[in-house]
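Researcher: We plan to redesign the surface later, but first we want a full-length starting point. Tokens attached.
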């Protein structure tokens, strides 16, 4: 099994010394890469800027990128050859409309930035997904969680969507633990316990592998 996995944040440059980013640490994505490798899969890990060392497993090829556009281009190169796509990255939805070639100087009392939409990596690749391929997305919602997550599953052509819980202390960005629910196309919801991201990653990989096999039966 060949897995394409995106992880970490993206950095969108403003000028030579500044960027727009987010607080994703990449821990969940890297834990998934390790768990897939442990389960015998080959992984192409496309990683935004993170503080983590590249995984040691020889089954994992790590491609480092910075922007959403670079992440898309790296993902598009391997998407067709991959059996399973997992979109764990926190991709910036917008980037600065202009990247200034020189450092922006301090001037007026306010500064307005114009942002333009980035490519949606999952949705764009989703349009090319073949019936034998399997796609997993992530969603973080604060209102109407299940409805919004299901909407993303349909819009982006996911087979499963992992819904991050924000309600539980110790879950999500920057933590070593996470609590998620997984939704499938039939609308079934599976709830996972709050646990270490490494353990949760193993459980998610088991679920993904079993669903991938079933969809081939
Ligand atoms: N995603 C992506 N490319 C983007 C934005 C999101 O591949 N430009 C992927 C994420 O990796 C995740 C899924 O799409 O697997 C959902 O991301 P999310 O930010 O929750 O969804 P959006 O469609 O961006 O909607 P919003 O941020 O408004 O909730
Ligand atoms: Ca988003």
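Model: Full-length starting sequence:
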């Amino acid at each position: 099994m060949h897995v394409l996995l995106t992880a970490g944040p993206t950095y969108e440059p403003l000028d030579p010394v500044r960027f727009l980013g987010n607080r994703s640490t990449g821990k969940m994505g890297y834990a998934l890469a390790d768990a897939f490798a442990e389960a015998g899969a080959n992984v192409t890990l496309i990683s935004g800027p993170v503080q983590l060392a590249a995984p040691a497993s020889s089954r994992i090829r790590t491609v480092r990128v910075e922007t959403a556009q670079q992440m898309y281009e790296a993902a598009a190169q391997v998407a067709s050859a991959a059996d399973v796509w997992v979109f764990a990255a926190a991709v910036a939805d917008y980037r600065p409309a202009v990247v200034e070639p020189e450092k922006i100087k301090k001037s007026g009392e306010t500064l307005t930035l114009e942002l333009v939409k980035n490519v949606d990596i999952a949705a764009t690749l989703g349009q090319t997904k073949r019936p034998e391929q399997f796609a997993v997305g992530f969603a973080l919602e604060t209102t109407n969680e299940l409805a919004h997550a299901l909407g993303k599953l349909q819009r982006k052509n996911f087979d499963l969507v992992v819904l991050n819980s924000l309600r539980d202390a110790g879950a999500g960005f920057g933590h070593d633990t996470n609590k998620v629910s997984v939704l499938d196309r039939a609308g079934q919801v599976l709830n996972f316990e709050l646990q270490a991201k490494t353990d949760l990653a193993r459980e998610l990989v088991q679920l993904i592998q079993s669903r991938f096999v079933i969809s081939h039966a």
